């Protein structure tokens, strides 16, 4: 059964607490915190996402799945360590070399935070193969990072299939998370391809029944 990580990117500030409470009741498996620094992607929402993550920590024990769309990965990891997130995912495109990637991995491991690495739609899988054995999760972006409510890019589904095959061939016990444009229809495609954690924002947070929309992605 796939797990669902609800993105809070598009949640209105004035409805945030109510929405987080309702998502807790609807039993989302994770809260997906989309941190954007205005450099790796155009939007800068670091302050708002930190406030949302703190609010969620106050009202819920549901784990935080933090997605860093930032250039300064270490600085943003330090910012989230006190919130004890379940996992933090960094973009391989923001890392200058394998050494830096291993430093980031060590920082997360030393703080008991699960390690995720993300790749944008145009980034080839081979760019993460040299560090894949050290991570808990690969996040395959199914849209260009930077905003919610986009259409899933169909070519990315093949990447999920290839990654799933590669993980099986190499006995890697990793989560495969997909992120962007996930709804009832696309959920079937990405699960068949091997994704086991589905990030979904607009489809859930703009629905009139969170429980039903989350269930519809799982079943
Ligand atoms: C985009 C974010 C995604 C996005 C998902 O940069 O990483 O998490 O918010 O939202 P939807 O499901 O609306 O595409
Ligand atoms: Zn995300």
What's the rounded overall pLDDT mean? 98
- Strand % is 15-25%
Query: In total, how many domains does the architecture comprise?
Result: 1
**SS elements, strand count:** 8
The largest sheet, given as strand count, sense and whether it forms a barrel, is:
8 strands, parallel, barrel
Gyration radius from CA atoms, angstroms: 16 Å
Per the CATH scheme, the topology name is TIM Barrel
For this structure, what is the CATH class? Alpha Beta
Low-confidence stretches: none
Q: How helical, in percent, are the residues?
A: 25-40%
CATH homologous superfamily annotation? Aldolase class I
- Strand order, sheet with most strands: 1-2-3-4-5-6-7-8
The secondary-structure element order is EHEHEHEHEHEHEHEHH
Bound molecules: D-xylitol-5-phosphate, zinc ion
Q: Briefly note the structural class of the backbone.
A: alpha/beta
**What general form does the structure show?**
globular
Describe this structure in words.
There is one protein chain. With 219 residues, the chain is an alpha/beta fold. The chain has a single domain, classed as TIM Barrel (Alpha-Beta Barrel), CATH 3.20.20. Helices cover 40% and strands 20% of the residues. The chain has helices at residues 16-25, 46-59, 73-80, 98-110, 126-129, 155-169, 184-193, 202-205, 210-218; strands spanning 3-7, 30-36, 64-69, 87-91, 114-119, 137-141, 175-179, 197-200. An 8-stranded parallel beta barrel has the order 1-2-3-4-5-6-7-8, surrounded by 6 helices. Helix 1 (16-25) packs across helix 2. The termini are close together. The site of D-xylitol-5-phosphate has 22 residues, from strand 2, strand 3, strand 8 and helix 8.
